[in-house]
Amino acid sequence: MTGSMIATQRSTVNSWECDRMGHLNVQFYLARWSDAIAHLGLKLGFQPSQARARRIALLAAEDRIQFKRELREGAITTIHACVRGISDRGLIVHGEMREGETGISSAAFDSIITCCDLDDDCEIPLPDEVRARAEAMAGACDLPPPMPPQGGPEAPAGVVAGMYETGRGAVNSWEIDWHGAMAPRFFMARCSDAAAHLMSGAGLDPHLMRDRNWGSAALDYRLTYLRRLRAGDAVVIKSGLLEIREKVWRFCHLMLDSATGEVVARAEIVALLFDLATRKSFPFPDDIRAKVESQILADPGRT
Amino acid sequence: MAALIESYRGAICAWECDFYGHLNVQFYVARLSDAASSLLVALGLGAASPRGGDLGFIAVNQTIDYKAELLAGDLVVMKSGVKTVGKKSITVFHKLLNAETGAISMTAQVTGVLMDLETRKAVTIPDEVRTKAERLLVQEIPA
After folding, report:
1. Do A38 and B8 touch (CB under 8 A)?
2. For chain A, which end, N or C, has fewer CB atoms within 10 Å of the first or last residue's CB respectively?
3. Cα–Cα distance between B38 and B36 in angstroms, integer?
């Protein structure tokens, strides 16, 4: 469903963007989506030169990504995007990534995009012209329904009993984009790394994964950015398990400012295990399931 | 004669910019490499095509003209076409545009030799690839 949508991204999958699973790592889907959002912004009249001069930026407040088909080295990626509507915070946008050679759908995106004053570090209303164009585009797009919630318990608002550390580091200067804050892709990269530690804690350590020739893949990411991160900020990631179903499990990562303990970003993820040879998923084996169930957060509710 | 096809669309990231505050040359070349994949698809040699894993064009010469600098946050589009088709080689043309202004930021000509990826030797361009390449021929290098 890309007929009325705008071409916003086109590139190819490079080998260094692929992970141990032999497919495009999640962070590079988001990298492409961030580029696509900027091109959609240009279509709405949000020009990079003006944004730099006026010290304003269109930034994602929330990214929802559903992964539909893995992408391998050499594949072409294209993204078409459109505005779904306008909310109090800004734009609600939708995008679809396809493998450019076959047209097969690879991922879908739903995001909330806000206009930010970079000097005051706060959300501001959309420029009038951008808003007008967005309203016109929203009426013209033929889009699938908004993605439903992932279902099951949500990630907690703060660290609760049962969560443990899965990452620690600092924001590097080369992770800062033109608007002065860490680009979303680098949060997702940390989530991808943190998942390996979370899996180890749940009995799925790298040795076992290699021995059984298993891989892990995300089906759904919901990323919420609560504060812009600057170069040098020290961060820690705490993670926890939300639920386990037959073939999928859900877990969450909270990124905290190490100095203050403030939650600065949150990820809620649906993932599965698959056989690296057949590329097919399978039900969680009983021994793994038992360990995962013992670690499900008792009261993860967010209020 | 064909129009140029879109072969890349993206944004300039701050970490790709250098001491001079603009896109470093290596990242122009990276985008040429990315754009080549879309041309390969147009030639029937994409990763999903039957011959995609057997044959590939390897770059043997690149000529690049940098015409206007790009800054972090700028949005770009690459358009590409075929300039000449030889027995074993092809020369393609790329034009990188600033999507906001339409200004040409870079033009490049890249000559590639078709290689058998098993033997690692240059081979004659098959007729079906040549036909597709000739459909992408651009009459003259656009300004």
Report:
1. no
2. C
3. 5
Please give the single-letter amino acid code of residue A72: R
Extract the tokens encoding B109.
């000509």
Query: Does ipTM come in above 0.85?
Result: yes
For the segment A10-24, what is each residue's pLDDT rounded down to a tens digit? 999 999 999 989 999
CB A74, CB B46: distance < 8 Å: yes
With CA atoms as reference, the chain B residue closest to A7 would be B9
Residues A167 and A269 reside in one and the same domain:
yes
Q: Scanning every residue of chain A, which has its alpha carbon at the shortest distance from the alpha carbon of B36?
A: A12
CB contact under 8 A, A178 and B15: no
CATH of the domain at A191: 3.10.129.10
Residues A121 and A205 in one domain: no
CA distance A121 to A234: 19
Q: Dump pLDDT digits (tens) for A193-235.
A: 999 999 999 999 999 999 999 999 999 999 999 999 999 999 9
Provide the domain limits for residue B131.
5-135
Split at pLDDT 50, 70, 90, the class of A141 is confident
**Is B141 inside a domain boundary?**
no
**A78, A97 in Cβ contact below 8 A?**
yes
Closest among A114, A83, A115, A100 to A6, alpha carbons compared: A83
Residue A139's pLDDT band (cuts 50, 70, 90): confident
Cα separation, B38 vs B46, in Å, equals 8
pLDDT digits (tens, 9 = 90+) for B41-67: 999 999 989 888 899 999 999 999 999
CA-based nearest residue to A166, from A120, A212, A202, A121: A202
Neighbours of B44 (CB within 10 A): 18
The CATH number covering residue B115 comes to: 3.10.129.10
